Amino acid sequence: MASSYPPLNLRVRTPRLVLAGATDELLERLIPVVRAGVADAGPAPPFDDPMSLYADSPEREWRWLRAIWAGRSRVEPSWWRLYFVVIVDGEPAGMQDLIGAEFAAFGTVSTFSWLGPRHRGRGLGREMRAAVLHLAFAGLAAREAASEAFADNHASNRVSQALGYEPNGTSWATRRGEAALLTRWRLTRDRWDRARRADIALAGVEDCRPVLGL
Predict the structure, then answer these.
(1) Is the domain defined by 6-212 classed in CATH 2.40.50.140?
(2) Strand order in the sheet with 79-88
(3) Which of these, 60, 84, 59, lies nearest to 72 by C-alpha position?
(4) Which of 11, 31, 159, 214 sits most deeply, having the most CB atoms within 10 A of its CB?
(5) What is the pLDDT of residues 51-80, one digit of tens each?
(6) Considering only CA atoms, which of 196, 189, 96, 187 is closest in space to residue 146?
(7) pTM score, two decimals?
């Protein structure tokens, strides 16, 4: 059943996966992946603080859900975050977010994503980023996309390179309370256009544009 709230009806489909607006039903189906843990256990965890995925279960699931509910409720022209559940072979595998700050004025988006451990190493990270970039550029007429990852998060940085992003300096963030270097990336519309794919389909975009102030 379609939702009366347009962001939850957004769909981006590629030959390998679907990005589906993060309804409560889909979030519930994703809970087992979150419960199992998605943050690496090694000395260099990949995500920034504060991050619900580092908490112990069941606090991990509660904090994760509350963060998404809070983000979904704050969708306005000055700032919005669109949450998508990544569906692979009919099953939820992770999340892909698209964020806009003063998007109508600047046309810039940023992204955040994660995959459950058993879905990594298959090229899905690149595929889901390509999908959400198609929504940003082809669907919402973005001018550029930004991304950042810890300098030692090689998988995320390789995805940015592979999709045509250019280095855009560095910054700092805390990771488990410790300072860690971030690598920043920038993808212009011109560079995205050069490798634009013809096998990605969008649905629900026009109904969603007024909610985003477009």
Answers:
(1) no
(2) 166-175, 178-188, 144-150, 108-115, 91-101, 79-88, 18-21, 11-13, 201-203
(3) 84
(4) 159
(5) 788 888 999 999 999 999 999 998 999 999
(6) 187
(7) 0.95
